[in-house]
Amino acid sequence: MNKVKIIATGSYLPKKVLTNFDLEKMVDTSDEWIRTRTGIRERRIADEKEATSDLVVKAAHKALEMAKLKPSDIDAIIVATATPDTLFPSTACWVQKALGINGIPAFDISAACTGFIYGLIISESLIKNKACKRVLLAGAEALTKIVNWEDRSTCVLFGDGAGVAILEESKDDSGIISSYWAADGSLAELLYQPAGGSRMPATSETVSAKLHTIHMKGNDVFKHAVKNMGDSAIKVLKKAGISGEDIKYFIPHQANIRIIDATAERAKIATSKVYTNIERYGNMSAATIPIALDELNREGKLKKGDLILMNAFGAGFTWGAVILRW
């Protein structure tokens, strides 16, 4: 059975930049504190009129242009996001409306920061099983719309953006060669948005208590992220029958530079092979990996045959990794 490959990428980042120095004026924090603990210097902020689907559509047009395809050439739309436009319909349906391609399946994945990895695995299965010929997969977030700007432990971490990949069947040895995904729902309350769903519907009390914002126990999340990102990287390398030395680029989820460094060390991947943009964009959840992939692609750094490891950990907890040959 043929592999499934990425044929094009695209990304979009909002224009507004919020620096650490800007945050110093908003909460009790400092540029030095943020940089040394996270690696972040600045992040992008969607404007009041920009929803997650708007970011996806702009990234999608860039990917379609790269692939020399029309929207009607797409057979399915999948959006990985923790910040949907609406609880229903899915953000993917809003994207579908904007692209004008009715009559194909469109749905969201809720796997937080691991969403794009989950999406790659699902897209591969759909294409291999002939359910779809060509999938448009997005990882996109407008996280700053659910940030508590009075909570200095979380508001410094997050940013907004969207990345898109178009996948189809490969005719050669390029494509996904190894994958792994997992979750542990028993740890859900370590990182979540308490209100807004059926468990705690919106009321004036939930809004005033800021229960519709991100709540995180940072130290616990850090420990689990280090362990599970490292474990998943090792698992996909073993499944692929290769070592960290064989990887050309390691694209980790951009949550914290210390997590990234620890994962690369465990997987025995040289620092020179690790791609990071966390200093410019912060944690964009499901958008971090596809945006990084698009940057590498558009800079001409990805060459045919290169082995790329993508690895993530997110709320749920969810985690996973994919190795593909470019």
Task: Give short descriptive properties of this protein.
5-stranded mixed β-sheet; single chain; Peroxisomal Thiolase, Chain A, domain 1; alpha/beta; 10 helices; 326 residues; 2 domains; 4-stranded mixed β-sheet
What does this structure look like?
With 326 residues, the protein is of the alpha/beta class. The chain has two domains: 4-171, Peroxisomal Thiolase, Chain A, domain 1 (3-Layer(aba) Sandwich), CATH 3.40.47.10; 176-325, Peroxisomal Thiolase, Chain A, domain 1, CATH 3.40.47.10. It is built from ten helices and 13 strands. It has helices spanning 20-24, 31-38, 52-67, 91-99, 115-128, 204-208, 218-240, 257-266, 278-281, 288-298, and strands at residues 4-12, 16-19, 42-45, 76-80, 106-109, 134-142, 160-169, 175-183, 191-192, 215-216, 249-252, 307-314, 318-325. The strands form four sheets. A five-stranded mixed sheet has the order 1-7-6-4-5, sandwiched between helices. It has a four-stranded mixed sheet with strand order 8-13-12-11, with helices on both faces. A two-stranded antiparallel sheet has the order 2-3. A hairpin with a 3-residue loop joins strand 12 (307-314) and strand 13. Helix 3 (52-67) packs across helix 4 (91-99) and helix 7 (218-240) packs parallel to helix 8 (257-266). The longest helix is centred in the C-terminal third of the chain and has 23 residues, at 218-240. The model has no long low-confidence stretch (mean pLDDT 98).
